[in-house]
Amino acid sequence: MAKRTSHINAAILVSSIALLAACNSGDPVYSSFGSEAGSLLDTGTFGNATMNNTQIMNGERQYAFDLSSRFADEVLTTVNFAFGSAELDFGARDTLREQAAWIRQFPEVRFRVYGHADAVGSSSSNKALGLRRAKAVVNYLASQGIGKARLEAVASFGEEQPLIVTQGRERRNRRTVTEVSGFVGSHPMVMDGKYAQIVYREYVESATNKSYIQPGQAGRE
Mean pLDDT by 10-residue block, N- to C-terminus, for the chain (221 residues)? Predict the structure, then answer.
């Protein structure tokens, strides 16, 4: 009987140690015991499923994707940097002027700039450097007449997403990428759900513009 009790006590001790280890590891199930009711459900993404469903149903997500693809097709979306630098060189500024000209056509659209670094240096320093590069691009686009409310430098992948896999210096990895991130919710056209008209504005205007000349009709009376 004493031997059986000893085994039971040992099992309880092992279970207690496991419970403490789980608590120390930050397991949300155990750490939630000291929090308010329902805290375990709110992991920072609460409501995302509903938001995504809404965007898919009203077409916003698809149209944002279409516009992002168009942006990438018509404009060079990437600029590169010297090693350890967030300074924009002549080529980068030239590319950003083209980006700004394209962005100005779409006042209903928001953009996000992602900063990257190569693998040389620590992960934390590269992440900070990538963010500085993204902010440099946002500031330059703002100087070209783009409202900062439509520009975000909110993400830096540091060295985590290289174009060229190498541990050495690689200029192509030291870059920023500008992408369409969504629509300005307060804009009248967005409020009316006219996403297609935003994305394909030139086509809509050409179809309603009386001075537009159909291909092959130039020179005809």
Answer: 56 54 47 44 42 47 82 94 96 97 91 93 92 97 95 85 83 92 68 68 59 45 37
CATH code, 167: 3.30.1330.60
Question: Model's pTM, two decimal places?
Answer: 0.64
Structural domain contains residue 217 = no
Spatial strand order in the sheet of 151-158:
78-80, 175-183, 109-116, 151-158
Structure tokens at 88: 């924009």
